[in-house]
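User: Predict AAA+ ATPase domain-containing protein's structure from this.
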Amino acid sequence: MLPGDRFVPLLRTSGKGLADFARAGRIGSTLATQMAHRMSRSPSAAEVRSWDASLAALAADLEQAGLHGVEVLAEYQLPLSSKRIDVVLAGEHPRRGGPSYVVVELKQWTKASLFEDEPELVLQPSYGNRPVLHPVAQVRGYGEYLLDFLGVLEGAQDVLAGAAYLHNATDDGVAALRGYPQDELGRFFTAQDRGDFHAFLRSRLSPTNASVHADRLLRSSVAPSKQLLAVAAEELRTREQFVLLDEQRVAFDLVLHEVEKARRGDHKSVVIVSGGPGSGKSVIALSLLGELGRRGIRAAHATGSRSFTQTLRRVAGHRAPRTAALFRYFNQFMDADRNGLDVLIADEAHRLRETSANRWTKTEHRTGKRQIDELIDAARVPVFLLDQNQVVRPGEMGTVEDIEKHARGRGLDVHQIDLSTQYRSGGSGQYIEWVERLLGLTPGGPASWTGDERFEVRTAPSPSAMETLLAEKLADHQNARMAAGYCWTWSDPRADGSLVPDVRIGDWSRPWNLKGDRSVGGAPPAALWASDDRGFGQVGCVYTAQGFEYEWNGVLIGPDLVWRGDRWVAVRSANRDPDFRNTKKVSDADFDLLVRNVYKVLLTRGLRGVYLHSTDPETQRFLERLVG
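Assistant:
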């Protein structure tokens, strides 16, 4: 492995080297050692057995095809994602010369069938009744993702191919999968097609300069991540703006499948998609809106977030005015017609509340009906996208268990998809785990940050130093924002339009982002703080940051959460959030959990890196020890 490699696979070797590992019975153990060393986690015994079996089969095929000299990149991590490809083979194209790469997805399946005749969704016995993505769609998605993000592939012709290889399967066991469309990015082979698989590999690869071409792939530049909101309007029209992978595509296909089932008969079902920050929930939502719109299917998008909804309305409405009406709030369905929509996409459903009623609600709408029931009633296929660890306000209560309980209590079918992949924070699942352990949201306790080349973590000695670092990123045309816990008074703008520098730390001070919906003094309205270039220079809070992402993230941890001895202490008196004032509605225990969730949201907004600073000296020293 070369020290300059950007996306080092867990194992890099030649076809011959892979065969040597296989004969020694050391493929699985070698990958397990690399995973423990590089990713600080150990694979399951089943995963090790799978590596031994599948990679040994591939090694034998490479030998038989005369390709012992090609480069094998096993468990290659996609850029800006925690998803890993089974194998990327690198060599030279035998006809035209130049680099050539083949993405290979290895399956040990012997049997598989289609999920209710849906061509892209597959039932495989080891997964029970949960549908998974067709392996050809899976490998094609990986190829499209690489073409989108790797500079070495940009503009290149015929440089990448893909194959799903079911090396244990015969046609009898997987005959239903044969009909799925194939192309160069997605070919389908079973054990009965071994000769065809060898011919396919020989048509794409020769060992000439294989190591040079592997180096180029691993050292490739990575294009900036597609900013969700910057392409929202185009996404509503073309959906191809986003490539959906694995569980994301399963969720997308499953919703479309349930819509068609509902249209064919009197059927109603609920789809729940759960995942952490940056797992692609809102990308799925926008992708669905685009596709449903093209099919003429009645759909709407709803959230409990004013910032997120208004930003989507602004971007979509600017380019395609009629699309802005698609974006609504959870509390706008109190008097909706039952099943008046085919699909209602409830994004950020962790922000569901007990009821939609508030002090402005008309008497005839004060029915006591739960908000979750209103949303379920509004569409034949309500879709809930949520992250249970992003509940940051009292009264927010959207959980997988609660939604499923309500749906099943009404006799409805429920489909639940978990998005395990990470696209935010540079695709660093290691960073997300580090944050959750740091804040005590998962077991294990705070750990030292051991580094991840996909994501940078640093402390800043002061707010001014942090701001200087972020300003340097802006000057380099990289998006950056600074956010803080709600620990300072939040003033309205002065009469002359200037903003009050409420966030004061030592001799440094800056204003909060605006409260309202109008631009004042050159600052963008609150809903656009995270997405408008003019947002830099104001400090954001969780309500304006949640649901958004920026390349570089500065987080000021205020005096409402401090480290004392060996634990976090939530200091309620230091918090200025009016939603937390009522001790009868928000107990001290609830406040403790909510404030940790607030900082989890703030700490997971960055795509490339984060800078941390605590206003409390003891907490700052603690963070510096962990980060190093």
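The first helix runs from residue 15 to 23.
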